[in-house]
Write a structure and sequence with these properties.
Layout (H helix, E strand, L loop, with lengths): L7 E4 L5 H12 L3 E6 L3 H13 L3 E6 L7 H17 L6 E4 L16 H22 L8 E5 L12 H21 L5 E7 L2 E2 L8 H8 L8 E2 H12 L10 E4 L7
Helix pairs in contact: 1-2, 1-7, 3-4, 4-5
The chain binds NADP nicotinamide-adenine-dinucleotide phosphate.
């Protein structure tokens, strides 16, 4: 029996990349998984199909986080899906994985108010209110996991807006952990480094070589490697860890 047997999880941004891998892994551990996506319904359905093919249970839940009303809409869809599949509205694990990332190259001189607003909306404001409103569904002993990035502990001026918003996300972890400890709910940050999420850049050998050099293992990460770390944080084995910054960068922050 998997270590998340009888548990449920919501993974935001689970149609592709790291979020999909987290959804697959939590489902493999026994959780019923709500697979959130923004626009790519086909990819979300594929995540659900992959989970079901492996014997797990999941459903897709659309919400463009950052848009007005999106948090309430997502939670309504998640609650309905959970009731349908489990007969209960309990949500044991919330993984805030979805992020605004599509502005690579916007160095300090090129950052606009729109870029900053979008980063903060999706990467910090949406996770905050998702946690706040999901707490009605999360039982004592639940898990909140915020997916940040190694950029908060290193210097990448080309990603300054993204890094600022991920820093804000980590503050959510830090300041909610003591509040939610009263209910045995842990709140942790997991920070990936460069991870092959299927983006075409990972088909470019020179780019991959440059990115690989950032890790002490001299390679880029696989999405399953981040998901395995998230699965540990989601499990009962991690019950004595809260407010933590969990490094999933393949040693990138050592150099
Ligand atoms: P990705 O492959 O680009 O996938 C993004 C996922 O998020 C998709 O499922 C997308 O849904 C969804 N999404 C995007 N905007 C959304 C929104 N506003 N509301 C709801 N869903 C939204 O991303 P990734 O590389 O796997 O990254 C996953 C997480 O890891 C992010 O928090 C990212 O910051 C972090 N991270 C990634 C890396 C890396 O190298 N990959 C490194 C450090 C940190 P659709 O399919 O519908 O568009």
């Amino acid at each position: 029996m998997g270590r998340l047997h009888d548990k449920t999880a919501l993974v935001t941004g689970a149609s592709r990349g790291i979020g999909r891998a987290i959804a697959l892994r939590l489902a493999r551990d026994g959780a019923v998984v709500a697979v959130n996506y923004a626009t790519n319904e086909a990819a979300a359905k594929e995540t659900v199909a992959l989970i079901e093919a492996a014997g797990g249970r999941a459903f897709a839940a659309q919400a463009q986080l950052g848009a007005p009303g999106s948090v309430a809409g997502l939670l309504a869809a998640v609650e309905a899906g959970l009731v349908e599949l489990t007969g209960s509205r309990t949500l044991d694990v919330l993984v805030n994985n979805a992020a605004a990332t599509g502005f690579a190259g916007a160095g300090p001189d090129a950052v606009t108010e729109d870029i900053i607003d979008n980063c903060y909306l999706v990467n910090a404001k949406a996770p905050f209110f998702l946690i706040q409103q999901a707490l009605a569904l999360i039982p004592d002993g639940g898990r909140v996991i915020n997916i940040s990035s190694g950029v908060t502990h290193s210097t990448f001026p080309q990603q300054i807006a993204y890094a600022m918003s991920k820093g804000a996300l980590e503050q959510i972890t830090l300041h909610l952990a003591p509040v939610l400890a009263a209910r045995g709910i842990t709140v942790n940050t997991v920070a990936p480094g460069v991870t092959d999420n299927g983006d075409p850049v990972f088909d470019n050998p020179e780019a991959v070589e440059r990115m690989a050099a950032l890790s002490v293992f001299n390679r880029v990460g696989e999405v399953a490697e981040v998901a395995d770390i998230v699965a540990f944080v989601a499990s009962a084995d991690a019950r004595w860890m809260t407010g933590a910054f969990v490094d999933a960068t393949g040693g990138t922050l050592l150099s």
